[in-house]
Amino acid sequence: MTHSTYTQQAPSSFKLNQTLVADAPCRDEQALAQAELYSHLESQAEAVAPTQDPLTSRDRRIIGEIIEVEPESVRTIWIEGGITVWVQLVGGGRLPFDRDWFATRVAQVKATLPETPRERNERLSNELKKACTVFGLYHGEIDWLGFNTKLYQDGHLVGFVGCNQQGWYARPRQYGLNRVAPSAEQVIGLLGVRTAIAA
Fold first, then answer.
1. Rounded-to-integer distance, Cα 182 and Cα 190, Å
2. How far is 161 from 189, CA to CA, in rounded Å?
3. Which of 26, 55, 58, 139 could form an SS bridge with 149, CB 3.0 to 4.6 Å?
4. Where residue 21 falls among pLDDT bands split at 50, 70, 90?
């Protein structure tokens, strides 16, 4: 009976640490090689599928406010057993909190925390996207500083929309008077565009 063994060579980019001491035990050499292999595999995995951070900067600001630490020191949070909220810190510490107490504090802090410019732009962009879907429109590149863009329907310019301190505004031409409305959908309606009809 024959027995075959499959062996796999390390990739050419894998470099074994050549500075090993000749009389070091085999276990140390193996541990070093294994650590280097894990490091290589980790970097390859990160290049293929970068991990996404489940917490936004706003989440970190809220948690930091609740537990009185810098937002950057919060690594992640999770709920254990539906009862305890654990906050993992970058330095390695973990803090447990009662879930109901933590949820109450999150609601309180959210109500007082001002919206960042990025959060505002994301909110406005989502509202504009939904409104464009209702009317069968698409928009050009958004000027994020002033939050404004051009609207198109079937390749034709429909008008200009944006949002400022007065609210959503629209105008059919580059220059002219702005028509103001409280929502993106209402302001697009002021341009005379009819809602898209599903065929």
1. 12
2. 11
3. 139
4. very low
